[in-house]
Structure prediction request, 231 residues.
Amino acid sequence: DAKTTQPNSMESNEEEPVHLPCNHSTISGTDYIHWYRQLPSQGPEYVIHGLTSNVNNRMASLAIAEDRKSSTLILHRATLRDAAVYYCIPTDRGSTLGRLYFGRGTQLTVWP
Amino acid sequence: GAVVSQHPSRVICKSGTSVKIECRSLDFQATTMFWYRQFPKQSLMLMATSNEGSKATYEQGVEKDKFLINHASLTLSTLTVTSAHPEDSSFYICSAREWDRDTYNSPLHFGNGTRLTVT
Prediction:
């Protein structure tokens, strides 16, 4: 499995953009990069995923480095509801069942 | 959107008893479901992959005789913690993909978890 490195924690003020980095230098060429987030006492929630190109959806944007060794999740305007642990997860290419192995993630704190 | 429902959301049981947790995909079919466990302040740990109509696949170090998984239909998987002990107290979370999008590229949908406390 590709290993990931994320900062343990980050902080932001409400309505400011947030850039959450993730290093995945051992990612294979066909692994997708998934981002999930988990609010306290809840199951994780899908945020976004991509392969090579930058991706946008209603929740966030995903910027993937050209060499694919890193990616950045962008929350354009943080809200208090975005306070969560964010996980960057390359897919398990070795399994056709698509298992996801979670790392430690980044705890995002949003200040009002 | 696709919804995964877990029941119960919270359960307290006595040491030595067994507890069953249900995971249902409400508006889609899932040939594969995944069970995770999460201890306080820690990340999710994948326990096993539940396969409809066949045996579950357990991750290394997870006791299959202790954590019984049954995936009886395309919408239901159950996890039974047998002879529970206080160290089994944890947050158990299931997840699933839609059957017709059952590739590793499509998003996983997670239940809201079951908080198990063994006294």
